[in-house]
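#lab-general

N.A. 3:47 PM
ok so I finally got the sequence cleaned up, no stray characters, all 161 residues accounted for. can someone with queue access submit it? mine expired

B.Y. 3:52 PM
send it over

N.A. 3:53 PM
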Amino acid sequence: MNLFKLIRKQLADDTNLTIIRADQTGNIPNLPYATYKVISDRKGVGQEDVSHVDTLNSLVETRTQERNSTISFNIYGTSLDNAFEVATQLRKWFEWRGSLFLEDINVAVVNITDVTNRTTFLVDTYDEKWGFDVIIRYLNIDEHDIDYFDKVEYEIIRDRE
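B.Y. 4:20 PM
back already:
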């Protein structure tokens, strides 16, 4: 399962809140609800670690790299005050309640922004919401097999002058 979906599911389960991915079509859930969007994913500090393990049929190469991702949350409530309360509750999950879960899946919270008013004006109404961003650090591990050569053909050419 995708790391971000795993975090979203646990956050939704722990807070009893519907949390959906932002910028998608479909029916809008009942209020209150939250949206999330990964707005950046970048390489962390340092070099990637490359290791090899010899197996019977292949060589397994593992590349481990530190990554930092910023996840943006917007909360829509039954009122502007309700949206603020729910946003504060979600933010606290990253500070305290969800910290053990995140630790179990090897994710560290780097920074959490303040809860801010993100109300926007649509054509003739306001889209009232509060939100915050979370920067997380995690290890991205890629593993793949490198096949052994069964047979190598070569030719020796000598230059003679």
